[in-house]
């Protein structure tokens, strides 16, 4: 026998359910749709292509305008939203990427209305590596009557990596300074190696053991107006220096310094691997006699490399 449906069956439960539905409707209908601007939304770069480097740093954040319920947006922060740029297929050169609402991840119930900037410009360059010498740095002065002698670094070279143009300009890696203040004997220290150009980095983070010889100070002599030469300049290129002469101070025994002539010293700039362009490079000097180079003034020279007119 079929049971007849009775509208007042479980009447209290039905009243409670109806009341909850009415309450939920009131809450939802009372959450008005509003818009809000958010600054500092993180911008992520995904699928960065191998073999390329960013020559210019893109913005790390963007600004967005969102729409949603007032209650939802009141709890929203820039950290809850992420803008994503897919760099798959990028090539060397300047590239423009558009930011659309589809590229922004937002919580449920939030809509992206506007993104600023709408276009991001990035310049890509081919990645390059090169071995460069490690130049030890010191600070302070030895004890009176003593001078800094030979300085060595272990390792003597490190491999750098970065945009091709920046790597070509790089001449050396530097160490943290080793203090020789008041020293009368050899100084050794373990220091960090790095590069000053922020666009270049070490292929592997390294420390170096720097060994600094402290020796008794002999006599010094300064040779003035020595011409600056170049070494290892590529064929079909020519170089111009500013200034064209430098003063070189050497240290040695009295007999050797008295017999020294300008022809016994050569000041030069190493142009290995450099192409057409302008550079600021350190000057080196060598002595054919038993004398050590202690100072070069100026220590840097401006070099302009051009192609031969022939």
Summarize this structure as a short list of keywords or feature phrases.
mainly beta, elongated, nine-stranded mixed sheet, RNA Polymerase Alpha Subunit, Chain A, domain 2, 54% strand, 4 helices, single chain, five-stranded mixed sheet, 3 domains, 310 residues
In short:
With 310 residues, the chain is mainly β. It is 12% helix and 54% strand. It has four helices and 22 strands.
Task: Please tell me about this protein's structure.
The structure is a single chain. The chain has four helices and 22 strands. It has helices spanning 11-30, 70-74, 164-169, 254-258; strands spanning 33-46, 52-54, 61-69, 82-86, 93-98, 104-105, 111-116, 119-139, 146-154, 157-163, 173-179, 187-194, 201-202, 207-216, 219-231, 237-242, 245-252, 265-270, 277-282, 284-287, 291-297, 300-307. The mean pLDDT is 86. With 310 residues, the protein is mainly β. The relative contact order is 0.10. Strands 2, 5, 8, 9, 10, 11, 12, 13 and 14 form a nine-stranded mixed sheet that branches. It has a five-stranded mixed sheet with strand order 6-4-1-3-7. The termini are far apart. It folds into three domains: 33-117, Beta Complex (RNA Polymerase Alpha Subunit, Chain A, domain 2); 127-216, Beta Complex (RNA Polymerase Alpha Subunit, Chain A, domain 2); 219-307, RNA Polymerase Alpha Subunit, Chain A, domain 2, CATH 2.170.120.30.
């Amino acid at each position: 026998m079929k049971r007849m449906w009775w509208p007042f069956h479980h009447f209290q439960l039905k009243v409670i359910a109806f009341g909850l539905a009415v309450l939920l409707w009131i809450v939802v209908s009372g959450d008005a749709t509003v818009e809000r601007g958010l600054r500092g939304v993180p911008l992520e770069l995904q699928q960065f292509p191998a073999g390329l480097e960013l020559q210019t740093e893109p913005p790390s954040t963007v600004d967005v305008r969102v729409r949603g319920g007032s209650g939802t947006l009141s709890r929203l922060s820039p950290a809850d939203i992420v803008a994503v740029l897919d760099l798959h297929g990028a090539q060397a050169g300047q590239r423009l990427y558009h930011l659309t609402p589809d590229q922004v991840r937002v919580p449920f119930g939030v809509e992206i209305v506007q993104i600023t900037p709408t276009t991001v410009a990035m310049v890509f360059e081919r990645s390059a590596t090169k071995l460069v010498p490690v130049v030890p740095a010191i600070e302070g002065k030895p004890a009176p009557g003593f001078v800094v002698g030979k300085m060595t670094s272990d390792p003597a070279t490190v491999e750098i990596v970065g945009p091709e143009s920046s790597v070509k300009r790089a001449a050396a890696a530097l160490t943290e300074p080793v203090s020789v203040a008041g020293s009368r004997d050899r100084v050794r220290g373990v220091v960090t190696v790095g590069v000053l150009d922020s666009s270049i980095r070490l292929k592997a983070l390294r420390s170096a053991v720097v060994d600094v010889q402290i020796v008794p100070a002999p006599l010094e002599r300064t040779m003035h107006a020595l011409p600056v030469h170049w070494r290892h300049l590529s064929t079909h290129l020519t170089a111009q220096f500013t200034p064209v002469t430098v003063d070189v101070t050497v240290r040695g025994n009295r007999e050797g310094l008295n017999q020294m002539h300008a022809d016994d010293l050569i000041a030069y700039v190493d142009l290995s691997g450099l192409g057409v362009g302008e550079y600021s490079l350190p000057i080196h000097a060598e002595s054919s006699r038993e004398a050590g180079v202690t100072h070069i003034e100026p220590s840097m020279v401006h070099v302009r490399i051009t192609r031969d007119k022939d």
